Amino acid sequence: MRALITNDDGVGSEGIRTLAEAALAAGLDVTVAAPHEERSGASAMLSALEDDGRLLIDRTTVAGTEALAVHASPAMIVFVAVRGAFGEPPDIILSGVNHGPNTGQAVLHSGTVGAGLTAVSQGRAALAVSLIGGRPTRFDTARAATDQALAWFLENCENPYVLNINVPDIPPEQLRGLKPASLASFGAVQAEIGEIGEGFVTATFHEIGDEPEPGTDVALLREGWATATALRPPIVADAVNLTGLGGTDG
């Protein structure tokens, strides 16, 4: 099975090396193509730095295998990869390991999850993995959770969806396991607007201290669990009655 590995922290990050090593150990045919620099918060944005219509690519190595440093967002990398930009189109997309959480409503802004949602829109299943914390260090714990999640994912990737994994930044022996979770009703961080001046505004970001709902990803992570949530791209809002919008025919 062919797997494209990408992220939003950049091709030189420790997280993508961790994910590539897990994929190689699972026997996957791996292509690593990730942004040449950090593109966190890019969501599913399709952006790239082009030169005369050409997507710029540098060659490097990740986990001992050849890798591509692409001057583009993770979603753009996935978008062109499924069209054969980096060789044979991948069967699945693996995104991460993200340096920081992708929990609750914050998944809307995540470049890591955005790459996965782009994959789903192109008919591929995706696995997105994140290690929570401002500056996470326990990539050994992330690797343990990734191995478990990847083994399950490879047996359940016939239909397109994103399996979103978050892992607490704790030693492996303290990890309680991997558990299904719903999304918390708030994001991982909150923004506060400060000074509003002529031509500028200041904003500060901090972790939310609110008590999360039981069974949500944020709550379970605080209890020492790694969490798994299945995601799909936006769907039609059937509950909204649009009768009368746009007038009538004739």
**What separation lies between the terminal Cα atoms?**
53 Å
Roughly what percent helix? 10-25%
Order of helices and strands: EHEEEEEHEHEHEEEEHE
**Widest sheet: strand order?**
5-6-2-1-7-8-9-13-10
What portion of the residues fall into strands of 2 or more residues?
A: 25-35%
Whole-angstrom Rg: 19 Å
The biggest beta sheet reads: 9 strands, mixed
Structural class: alpha/beta
Overall geometry: globular
Protein model, in words:
The chain is an alpha/beta fold and 250 residues long. The chain is 21% helix and 30% strand. It is built from five helices and 13 strands. It has helices at residues 14-25, 74-81, 111-121, 139-154, 217-222, and strands spanning 2-6, 29-35, 50-51, 54-55, 57-62, 65-70, 92-99, 125-131, 162-167, 178-180, 189-197, 200-207, 226-231. It has a nine-stranded mixed beta sheet with strand order 5-6-2-1-7-8-9-13-10, sandwiched between helices. α1 (14-25) packs across α4.
In short:
The chain has 250 residues and is of the alpha/beta class.
Please give the structural blueprint.
Layout: E1 2-6, H1 14-25, E2 29-35, E3 50-51, E4 54-55, E5 57-62, E6 65-70, H2 74-81, E7 92-99, H3 111-121, E8 125-131, H4 139-154, E9 162-167, E10 178-180, E11 189-197, E12 200-207, H5 217-222, E13 226-231
Parallel strand pairs: 1-2, 1-7, 2-6, 7-8, 8-9, 10-13
Antiparallel strand pairs: 3-4, 5-6, 9-13, 11-12
Helix pairs in contact: 1-4, 2-3
